[in-house]
Amino acid sequence: MGTSRCQTKRREFCALISEFKPSMKTYFASAERLTREMLQRDIDSAVANPVIDGLLNTVSGLVAVLNEHRQILAVNDAFLSMLGIDNAELALGLRPGEAIGCIHHDANESGCGTSRYCATCGAAIAIVSCLARNEAVERTCAIEVASDTIRRDLFLRVRACPMTVQGSRMILLFIQDITHRQQWEALGRVFFHDIGNIIHSLLGYSEILAKRATHENRPEIQHIHRLAVRLAREVQMQKHLTQTMEEGYQLVLTPITAEQIFKELEAVFSSHPAAGQRAIDFSDQNRQVRFKSDFFLLTRVLTNMIVNALEATDKGETIKVWVDSDDRSLSFFVWNHRAIDKSVVDRIFQRNVSTKADSGRGLGTYSMKLFGEKYLNGKIDFSTSLGKGTTFSLRIPLKPSGRGSNILPIK
Q1: Are 323 and 289 in contact (CB under 8 A)?
Q2: Rounded (10°) angle between helices 50-58 and 36-48
Q3: Is residue 259 domain-shared with residue 406, that is, in the same domain?
Q4: Among 140, 157, 177, where does a domain finish?
């Protein structure tokens, strides 16, 4: 919104308070506004208050101070930047929807907060509830704003906090623009929904092909079916990682051996881009250990370990993968020759912290910890040093534990 628009709204506001009548209609919040003289008094009180001044100059994000009639008394620079103006006086006296340019701000003659649309506005609800309860209230607000001929949708998190300044009730309004985050989350939900439908069809057709396979093409068709199943589980796990985690991941427990896990990993990395010009040494020891687990989830955790090791390994070098067991547990190990940078060692399993300096989303080690411990009931650990390189390990129990182990011994 440009300066000319703010000037227009300012003129409309001045006309409105000069013509205000107690009988003006409202469908939600009060219609009353202060006179110019009373408004200036509130503005002076707000500006002179050291607490408000400190908040306006230190708090990041959009901050505004309102009187109890929802009129703006002060704003910070971030708020002015969003409005596209450099003169705060152009916004003073307006209500938030009028300053921002909400398309419904003039749907009722009494202005922002008084039309039927305002009854469902998160910002209006937060402000009115804050005044009624005399406590902080937070809401999300979907708002469409207009600037000249351009319209755009915003999604805001609004927090209204009450305070008293020289006997007058005021509201501190904190606004966070989460439009891009909300858009990405919505796109993610659509993506996982649509790709889920495609994968469901792919699985169905691969099963039909498997039933019709001949002796000559059976290995290829079985491989296609296994890839389709792996893809379905991979998408399910990725959805679980990137979304809210409200729905539990459903384990599929089957009897397996370490040999089967290694063969799957060898197939995965036979054409994996991370393995280019790097070798993987899969140990032949302890491959016949038998246990019960979620085959694809366990493979996923180990795949992440191996990818991390390969990406940290120089071309021409080799990483090592092996398994060991005792009476109580089975452990998988992945080693590479490089040490992890000290700056990330203490937070290596934290979400959005990547071991790679120039790339990575910080989900690889996080997902190891999440799936390896929360779902497989195991223990993820690592050791790293300049002399010995880095070794990641996953230890899973061979006997049921009191907290409901997902790994059971095979008899």
Answers
A1: yes
A2: 70
A3: yes
A4: 177
Q: What is the CATH number of the domain that holds 289?
A: 3.30.565.10
Q: What is the dihedral of CA 253, 256, 259, 263, to 10 degrees?
A: -50
d(CA 189, CA 263): 34
**According to the model, what pLDDT value does residue 226 have?**
80
The sign one gets for the Cα dihedral 207, 209, 212, 217 is: negative
d(CA 154, CA 180): 9
Q: What is the pLDDT of residues 339-353, one digit of tens each?
A: 998 878 887 887 666
Q: What is the DSSP string of 92-110?
A: TTS-HHHHHTBTTTTSSTT
Total domains present in the chain: 3
Encode pLDDT of 385-395 as tens digits: 998 999 999 99
Region for 314 from its dihedrals, namely left if φ exceeds 0, alpha if ψ lies in -120 to 50, beta otherwise? beta
Tokens of 115: 């039309």
Write out the DSSP string of 255-300. EEEHHHHHHHHHHHHTS-GGGTT-EEEE--TTTT-EEEEEHHHHHH
Q: What would the pLDDT profile of 22-66 be if each residue is shown by its tens digit?
A: 557 899 999 999 999 999 999 999 999 999 999 999 988 899 999
- 220 and 367 together in one domain: no
* % of the chain at pLDDT higher than 90: 46
- pLDDT tens digits for 191-217? 777 787 788 788 888 888 888 888 888
